[in-house]
Fold these 3 entries.
Entry 1:
Amino acid sequence: MAAWPLSCTLSLLTLMFLQSSPIAAQNKGNIPVGKSLSAATNNSSWHSPSGDFAFGFSKFSNSSNLFLLAIWYAKIPSTIVWYANDGNPVPQGSSVKITANEGLVLSDPNGINLWSTSDELSDGGEVKYGYMNDTGNFALKSSSNNPVWQSFDHPTDTLLPSQVMETNVEVNAKLSRTNFTKGRFQLRLMPDGNLVLNPRDLTTGFAYGAYYTSGTNENPTISGQRLVYNESGYMFILRKNGSRQDLLPPKMVQSTKDSYQRVTLTFDGVLTWYSIPKATISNVWSTTHVLPENICITNQNFRADVGSGICGFNSICSIGDDRKPTCTCPKGYSFLDPNDTFGSCKPDFMLESCEGYAERSMRGEYRLVPLPNTDWPWNDYERLDPCSEEDCKNSCLKDCFCAAAMFGDVNNLAGCWKKKAPLSNGRRDSTVIGTAWIKVGNVSISNSSISTFVSLPPSTTKNKEKYLNKALVGGSVSVNLLLLIAICFGIFFICHKKQQKVSNEGQQKTLREYSHVHYFSYQELNEATYGFKEELGRGAFGVVYKGTIRGGGPSICVAVKKLHRVSSDTDKEFKTEVNVIGQTHHKNLVQLVGFCKEGDQRLLVYEYMSNGNLADYLFDEMRPSWIDRVQIAQGTATGLLYLHEECSTQIIHCDIKPQNILLDEYHNARISDFGLAKLLVLNQTHTNTAIRGTKGYVAPEWFRNKPVTVKVDVYSFGVLLLEIICCRKSVCMELVQEEAAILTDWAFDCYLSNKLDLLVNDDMEALKDMIRLKRFVLVALWCIQEDPSLRPTMRTVTQMLEGLAEVPNNPPWPTSFSVTTQH
């Protein structure tokens, strides 16, 4: 490496001197202590002297009244280069003020502090004024004109010319194109001098293995000291001996006088150099360089022992023409969250334990799908060599631990490599030599194929008679006599079954006319549940048992709801539930697998939810994490939105409560128990009906002979949301604090007195996410309004929970009528 030229040293020293000199500070752009900005549609901002950069509130999106406290190119407002408050937007009416002791202070419309620079000010530093530099650096300076805080020392996802990054400083990518909170990737200059790019865990921030390293840590005496992006547009790692290692090839460097430049760690993990000519400013930035060149081909010097890699688990990373990664699911898999294409992929077939696997494999329940030039390099658990490709495939098919097999030249070693699940760091590239074979099920677990799981080999009357006739030929008289007797019994049995079949078909006809789910016989469900042995739960209309459906395909776990002995009411509820769930399909609803209507027996067969119901999860001694609770609340709201507005027939659930929210293997919320659902035709807006629901969750209009609309579900959801926030039941009379017994009243008290810490029982994870916590509480308080017209729709609720719509402040005092007057 060449020594760092003296001219560059002098340039850097000159820049540092100018930034701290009184001459540079005494500019008309100085913003004195006490000045403030407000978040408004036509808000003002503080500009740099040249007018290149602006500091203030940037409108978050055209469809909302949310704003982001940020720095952006004044002539390219859509390009934000720095943002405060961990990327969380704030509502209209929020403000930022420069104070002497805390520096920048961001407050919501009620004056509650959301973020400040107080913990980041230099020791003993008292702020005299603020200054927006032409470099894009916003600085707070003391009376001696020295910076006591500057945005360059606290980068977000972008670095600008003249910015220097020291060790232990992070650049974090956004979560997505439109979500500015911390995402899955980060750039760090490690204490040993190595510059790395690595994925991180979203919940804990744990840094996974790097997919790029600069290698500037090989010798402590010349290791990397800082990352410099100088005013001329060069970016390099400055070593301890004064030499440098360029990150941008010199031939790609453009003049900063003629073009705006920035380096951004994009949400997909690629460090990208951008430029745009100053003479012809537009919103289109040109990409001049990326690092790494191929993010999917991870650094072989770093083993990714944990984490999913660039894409999610079971996903495959490939590079497009724009040198950006694309994540796809292999055939037989689909995204766990269809809206998150960088997330994990789930199998679209049933995963079974090793018990009985060999038999299932012999029956052809699994097959291998070829994926050329594809590999999951660090999932190997066994190598076979010598081995043919056919032997490799057969070995994987017979092995219950094998999720995929790679045959070819892997890490310069030929042979067969068997890989375990979940598959991580997947990649598809021409440099990968060989073919991966991924194991998938022969049968999907969708509704349309449930019959394949449970259907048995056909055994028709004609076949039985043919078999009996063959048995008569050539037999002795005594044997034939016995066979004739058997035939008589056989014919009687067949006739009886035909008659019974006709009777059953008559019973099934009306259900089959509007239901597309599978019909089970009572005997099948009796066997599936081992005589209704293992009880999962019980309610007003029946008992739920765990069962296993076996047949021509993989066995599946189910929950069988056996209704109490039939009456006109239960029969009506049974038909309603089959009709409703048979026509609905959504990721946040429990799927109906089938039903049984035989004699006086009424049973419903649902997919089995391995993590039970929300009540058991929420009110256990171990409080669920805040992130889990947020996802459950949002999932429940999304499921209700589907029922109210997006399925073919509008549905009022009428009994939203934690016992009716089930959790799948990933703790996704799934709304269950439509036995109390009330159907509305498309041109109907309300219905009058008898009181339904559960104490503590019932809306006031049930008791006042008023029309019942979908807003009764909104009320119940509001109570449920408070329970999710607080991890306690809505009515808890045994509490020492009597005023806290009714959760709806207590939540409003805590909101008014700004004591949300009491509401969440000092849950630090929730308190660190104060903006969202307050937003969720506000949403709940609006949902439980006594007047249904004041309650938002579930569409508005989902938007407010996700931060895409503003939540109005100062909700009226909510009612506790439905809690205190029920018997």
Entry 2:
Amino acid sequence: MGQHQEPFLLGLLFALSFGIFCAHSVTVLPLLPVCLLLCGLLGAAAFGIWKSREWTWVPFILAAFVLGAARLWSAEMLPADDISHFAHEEVRVTGKLLEEPFLRLASDGSYRLRLHLEAERIKKGKAETVTAEGGLYVYARFNEAPKALPRIGDGVAVTGKVRLPHGYRNPGQLDTALLLKSQGITATLSARGESLKVEEREGASFKRWLSSVRSHYLSAMEEVMPKEDAAAIFAMLFGGYGGLQPELLDAFTATGIVHILSVSGAHISLIAAVMAWLGMALRLSKGLRAILVIGTIVVYSLLSGCVPPVIRSAIMGGLAFLALSLDRERDARRILLITGLVMLTVSPLLLFHISFQLSFLATAGLLYLAPVMREWLKKCRLGEFVSAGFAITMAAQLSTLPILAWYFNQLSISSLLANLTIVPIVELIIVIGLFGGIIAFLLPFLGRIIYVGDSLLLGIVYEMARWMSKLPGSMIWIPTLNGWAGAVYYAILCFMVADKPWQEKAWDFMKSRRQYLLLAGLVLLMFLGGRYFAHTGEMTLVAVDVGQGDALVLCSPKGRVLLFDSGGTRGDFDVGEKVLVPYLRHYGMNRVEAVFLTHAHDDHAGGTGAVLKKLPVGKVYTAWEGRGEYARSFHLSQADPLLNKLEPARQGAAMEVDGVRVEVLYAPEVVAPGSGNEASNVYKITYGEASFLITGDLTKENEAVILSQQDQGKLHSTVLKVGHHGSDTSSSEEFLRAVSPNFAIICVGADNSFGHPKAKVLERLQQAGAEIHRTDLEGEVVFHTDGKKMWVESYAKE
């Protein structure tokens, strides 16, 4: 172990991570026997060290695996008085404000406030006040801007309904609940704005002073530049997306430099590099340069709010850069691995946090992969500057590629050019911005001049980013890598960066066992081929978790895609852009043959605008509310040419795609604009002996109309998409008897304010003999059929 420290540390980190990952999907086991097993393994490792045994590394690796599982299970156990135990209750919570309040102006003209509290006391109804703990986000809405906001450290009392954090649970979607839990936030509270009371408290003076410093930076910039520019530069300095122009955000995303708007290891490295250069200019010793670098990183971390992502970036980026500046590259690698071990041991939920994943892998790429690539590029005679720039960019992209593929399915080709041309200017903006704030405090007039120059530089950056984002092939789609593909990918990268003796050992191992490796490859190929041919001829219909809305994706046996409803908007959050389009891309569904909308309500049609903008789409079949209703729901102008794809569905019409038949069973043509749920179309999908009935928000009255118009045998379906999210306004007993479904899928948002699905509807579905599935409990629900059999998979069964 002493001779091979890096491989040993890498093995420990992998085992610890694998233990955390496995424990996350396994029921929590009693910690006592797990701890006893851990002690036994550590004892065996100690014995091996004492006797100098070659196998000593084995119990260490096993102990790391068990430690990872134990830490995950212990982290998921919440104390008895945690605020999450009051979920679904109307309570009054008193707590301490931990971060600056976040206030924004919503598109409807109201003000939305978010507070991060540490719970202290809680009162339910007329019951006694009891102590509570745990972090929570409080969301409140105001018709007018609040006259005063609480300060960090103040007490806040507020009344509202406690909810458990709940995101959109689909493959490739960020797990919001897990991300918040890793930050100590176990609940949210939807508050009535008028119930909020602030209790001024002394203390937290240092945090308040840091907040005032950040406010000084922002106000100094807003005095001399547009608010949008000030918001962008402030984001570059301290992170965050508040107040940013969507166009700037899109351009930065398309050119692969959006990470600049989050405090990351890149920021830390930049600050450290400037301080190291300053130390060299002042001819300071290595020791003093190290103190200057570390001191500056600490101050910058404090100014950025000391939020967890900043602390992680400061530790990883700062220690790694410090080791590199002291010409200790190998030590920098060891420091990174040890830092990862410590972080995951202290906070195992970080393993599932995208910020940690990207920061760690990008730093590893810079330390391990970039030097190898730089030497290779120099041999191609590209020059030191170009080789270094390309090596850093490519190393960061390659080291994080499986993560980017899983979550985003996009790779920016223009990022190579952007990192060579735009990023140096952005780095200059950051440095000028940081020192400009100090100068503005001492010499306000000179500070204003500096910030005017910073604003001009930002304008140049914006124009360059916008131009590069429009280059052909600027952003390309990349397929999702599953666990096995990701493991093989990283194994190849590890082989590329390994020292020559390790590469030779790996070659010798593969040569000596090539017959076994060949056999394993053939078995794997047969397994994958068998799975492929087993799924040939299979159709899938997926109920995507879009919250309180409907979105169903049909994939034909030959991979063609049809969309039935598209979710909608939630406040200023576009579900189509943020949830549905990423879901389609995650599975490589880069074209939609046709969209079938039941009606124009936002929760059914609102996501279609984003789908039309982002993907090639054939026809969009609608109800008969009129073009204006759909333009409003899509958030498009009535003159937008995308609306030319709209065509009202006609009752009795049908189309067939790869053996899948879609028929319009019901489409009322006499519909007044804004008429609501009674406008809902009904579509029936048939593939072989399997059938699906899509009802939108169909009301009981219209169900009766369909029953009078259609032969009841025509309504019989294997799967029923339950009307109106399980509301009692739909799903009459007569209608359910006619449909007689084997399965029922309810598209509904978790803990929604409407109380959907209603208990009476669930009871009627059970009496009809239907197996009930719900997106609020199961996330994505997938129905597979070969035309004869039907089987169901759920992403997150509760």
Entry 3:
Amino acid sequence: MLEIILLLKRYFIENKLFILLKAKQLLTTILFFSILTLSFAQNATIKGIILDEKNNPIEKVSIKTEDNGTETNTNGFYSITIPANKNITIEFTHLSHKKVTSTFNLKNGEELEFNPVMSASIEQIATIIINSNRKKEVEGVITIKPDVIRKIPGANAGVENLLLTLPGVSNNNELSTQYSVRGGNYDENLVYVNGIEVYRPFLVRSGQQEGLSFVNTNLVQNVDFSAGGFQAKYGDKLSSVLDITYKNPYQFEVNADLSLLGGSLSVENISKDSKFTGIVGLRYRDNSLLVNAKETETNFRPTFADAQGFFTYKFSNKFNLSFLGSASINKYNFEPQARQTNFGTLSEPVALLVFYDGQEKDRYQTLFGAFKGSYFANDDLTLHLIASTYHTTEEEYFDILAQYRLGEVNGNIGDENLGEVEFSQGIGSQLNHGRNDLDALITNIEHKGDFKVNDNRFEWSLKYTNEDIRDRLIEWEVIDSAGFSIRPPRTSPNEQPYEPFTGPLEPFQNVRATNNTQINRFQAYAQWSKRSTLGTSDVWYNAGIRAHSWSVSGDDFSTSNQVVFSPRAQFAIKPNWEKDMLFRVAGGLYYQPPFYRELRDRNGVVQPDVKAQKSFHLVLGNDYSFKMWDRPFKLTSEVYYKNLTDVNPYTLENVRIRYRANNSAVAYAYGLDMRLNGEFVPGTESWFSFGYLKTEENINNRGYISRPTDQRLKFAALFQDYVPNMPNLKMYLNLVFNTGLPGGSPSYADPYQYQNRLPSYKRADFGLQYVLVDAKKQFNSGWKKPLKELSFGFEIFNIFDIQNSITNTWVRDVSNKRQIAIPNYLTPRVFNVRTTMKF
């Protein structure tokens, strides 16, 4: 972290890129101090739809506070700004209805949805709303504001980009939207959109192939994230839950976001009778700006595009039906040409030169659709029925010949051959071939219920899933070094030219498998929640249990059946102290029944008897809310411990996971996560995160070694600021520092012999934005009149041009046959231009 701060200071002074930002203000803020003396108004927003007793919207309802006022439109929609951090009384009045009075106390920047029903006969007085986020804090869930997600810069801007600034969440590859949480891998995270589980493509091997995340940030209304100890209502995974809620629109609105990396467009609207709402989003992304900046020269032609829609129709005040749909096409065409990687030391520089022939063509096409019917029987009982289908067809075709030359570099300054390889230590070639096809159809049907009795709340679910997956995997690699074919690992060595070799020629790696697999799952959960008091303290209880039964069948093996039960519980207490403190404890037995990728072993063959990985979780947490500089702050701390059994060991290469599929290990993970968030600058939210993690596994009783996700230390900061004399000029800074992961060794290597760590991952992304139009700056004439928001700016990714690496390329030295690790560097410094607008 100190290294990043010193680099930041030097970069700003030397390049003078940000003369409008006072260096003293920026540096002291990063060191957790602020000396800002100017004070700005702090506001919150309340919006919603006002209905009558027949559930019809009411037009021209007058909404007034002491200092502000507005009225509803033809759809009954309203939005009003109120001062933050104090009690504000709002009156809702209409000639044909009785007055509604309500008092609110909201945090700065908070948005609250309030939908009162106006009666024709009785005056209504609502209760004071003190804090709308308390329920999430009790559950150990972090809530992230959508507007923050859309503003923060990153090579893969979006929800996942923001998650990486949270403690316990890691990813050392900015080209990927995948993430690991508290020692788990990428397959151990649940993702829901409007209560519907969503999936990722299966065959992706590297971050630059991924394209778009499923979540479209322009459609997002709410983001909740739990890093562990989550309730029984969430599914059977070992690490985390990301719970996304898409918008139910209140009015017509258009959002657009354009940059050199692509663009997005969303349109939302509501019918005149307020029964039908819809929001549609289109996205296009071109990663060539990032990939072409890497050291490998390529002809790179990517096409990543998708369309999503969320629609709701209200048949009555008791029943509505919604549809969530998505279609995406990701094409990845890659023709590498040449590469030069310089490494070693100043006194002994070494370089790898590679010349390529061939290409890679990948295609991922996914279709997703889900219907959700909701029946509101009364104020206490709600019933849901969900049916969804996910279909993906994926192709990976590649034939790439790489001819390399490894040697010493001319380091004589002034020499015309400076930087060129003069003495070759290794010469060879490598041919990679792949023909991988996958077709997966996943169908779900689920019933959910929610019933309240006094202070008790009961939730339950029954779910059936059918997974039909057809997969063909053909990959082989041939390596030739100095004219001699390299034998496969763990076979008799080729000692030519010293000894004649008479064995058959074999590929260095060879994976061939064809699988037709069907998995049927039955899942159910029931949980109970209650809010009560213990003496003068408020307490919350939650207890639940999940059951999961599944069977695996296929053409080449008999059916395998298994059942697991997962009990979970949470307890939280808020003492009646002068300081605002909340304590919580959560624990349980968590299972992860194997998904298709976890059933395939290193040779690509499905092993149907793979057991569910099991983990005992214990999480202790504390939230301390306080004021500093008369602004709100919160310090969140959690310590956790996981004991894992029936672990399915794996290797991690870039983002591809290959399992052993034999449950041959036990493991543990423990750590500390801390996050301080608040208004370091008035009117903006920023935070600083720290995480410590240790996770190890014992494979076949050979002893404990670090797991591939053993990310020991993590520091991150997300900082928002603006120029005091120019509040429309805004700055966004995203800092991440992760210590190195175990890895970089060949995928076939024995992990007990290769326990080296990759270098630490250090990255800073910077964005500067000038706001021409926003909620506080509207225009009644001219070309800006139809705009609700408009901003222009630029972003600098990897501002310090740090060479991070995610994997190594292994080549052989001719003289002594040793293997040398050549780092595969990620993206360098990249400049991007961006504009956002709202109509």
